[in-house]
Amino acid sequence: MRLLIAAVCPLVLVIAWPAFASADTSEHGSTESEPLNVLLLYADDWRHDTLGIAGNPVVQTPTLDELSREGIRFTQNCVTTSICGVSRATLFTGQWMSRHGNRSFKPWTTPWQKTFPGLLREHGYFVGHVGKWHNGKIPADKFDFSRSYFGKHWVTQPDGSKIHVTEKNEMDALEFLKTRPTDQPFCLTVAFFATHAEDSNPKQFLPQPESMSLYRDVTVPVAPNATQESFERLPDFVGNEKNEGRNRWHWRFDTPQKYQTMMKNYYRLATEVDATCGRILAELEKQGLGDNTLVIFTTDNGYYHAEHGLADKWYPHQESIRVPLIIRDPRMPDSIRGQTNDAFTLNVDLAPTILSATGVDIPETMQGRDVSSLYLADQESDWRSEFFYEHPMLRSKDFIPASEALVRRDWKYFYWPEFDHEQLFDLRSDPREENDLAGDPEHADILRDMRDRFAELKAAAR
Which residue stretches of the chain have pLDDT < 70? Predict the structure, then answer.
């Protein structure tokens, strides 16, 4: 039996110095330039507040909490499409769905040589991917090391034995690190399946047996808008029993007892991932990479924990689109470490951030921005104050209707294209997005402004 709390962690990006970049010798005492390695640890269905350091009163994430204290945590980080496959395509391409062309779980249309793993391999990196892929069949020939699997929490090994998917993520990641050629820089993505539910299993979340003592005597708080009243305030084409978000709410959250069982097991999966991340980072330290690695933790999308009477993700509510982003960068001034930043960072920014850190030119086709300008520049750069959100219809408009949005810090505009339906929320007074103001004449001017700007950003995303 392994101790799971010792270290934990979902999506982390680790980068060591490239030959063409050098650390700040005044603060870090290093006078050598070394190739920058990249380790991306990427969790699933893990929203922004599933972190102890973010104020979650239940979940234990000691590795990520410590990573935040050693780096910087972006508290308003969001995804541009809240679903596994599309979000992963955005991660690799640095593009909105409208440009990379993957509208579900198929391969994107962007050329491989315009993705960050493709460019890094072209520039001499030893490139690996372990865990969830979800963009069609993994192009194994594009990687030097690949292990693709997801969908089940317990995976059958070649000898017939069972291993937990998070433990397999760890085993494969450590194999990559221990067997990689030491004369090449490396790039490894560890794409966890946890905390995603095993949709075909009535238990949904299946942690490892040694985790079951965690949270046993805790009562998980229920969000104020996890109510029938909130569900009934949704547009009729979402707030009905045919909608898949409501269907999955029944799977997980439709009784108080079920809610407690599901949420405790979800948090157990999170703590297991955190522990695995800790062991992967410990291997980096063992190999002497701790002082010259950039570490980034993030996830593919947020998650409804019964808010609005829904489960899963997809729609533009805050619970669905906000995800963690933690960066520990050796170049970072000591004065920045341990801070939070509320800039609108996006998953579309990760590819250009990685390429910039490794000294590889960012293709003009990438639409994101280098996040390091927010903590390395002498003065904060002119960063975005709004962004366009998009999600396609899946299967049918009754199952998962398409949704789009313009997101600002104080206002949010929803557009449901199949129904030509608008919503408007004042996030300052209504952070849970319960009071739709689109039909209020007093807000006609802001609605018009948001609608016009939404159209501009939608066109720019193509």
Answer: 1-33, 35, 379-381
Contact 260, 220 (CB under 8 A): yes
Please write down the HEC assignment for all residues of 149-197: CCCCCEEECCCCCEEEHHHHHHHHHHHHHHHCCCCCCEEEEEECCCCCC
Q: How far apart are CA 236 and CA 401, in angstroms?
A: 12
pLDDT tens digits, residue range 396-441?
999 999 999 999 999 999 999 999 999 999 999 999 999 999 999 9
The Cα–Cα gap between 50 and 302 comes to 10
Handedness of CA 249, 400, 136, 327 (dihedral sign): negative
Instruction: Determine the Cα–Cα distance for residues 204 and 224; give it in Å rounded to an integer.
Output: 24
Output the pLDDT for position 328. Answer: 85
Type of residue found at 385: S
Q: Which token pair is 76? A: 């308003």
What tokens appear for 335 in the block? 């004065």
Between the alpha carbon of residue 262 and those of residues 163, 198, 204, the distances in Å are: 21, 12, 7
- Which two tokens mark 132? 């969830």
> Is 26 exposed, middle or buried, given 0-12, 13-18 or 19+ CB atoms closer than 10 A?
exposed
Which residues lie closer than 8 Å to 448 by C-beta, 6 or more apart? none
Q: What is the predicted pLDDT for the residue at 290?
A: 79
Q: What is the pTM of this model?
A: 0.93
With H, G, I as helix, E, B as strand and everything else as coil, classify residue 86: helix
Q: Tell me, what DSSP letter sits at residue 110?
A: S
pLDDT at 33: 67
**Using an 8 Å Cβ cutoff, are 295 and 9 in contact?**
no
Pick the closest to residue 271 from 13, 38, 56, 40 (CA basis): 56
Phi, psi angle pair for 309, to nearest 5°: 70, 30
Q: Side chain identity at 200, as an amino acid letter?
A: S
Closest CA to 413 of 442, 451, 439, 384: 451
* Longest distance between any two alpha carbons in the chain, whole Å: 67
Which residues have C-beta within 8 Å of that of residue 240, sequence separation ≥ 6? 246
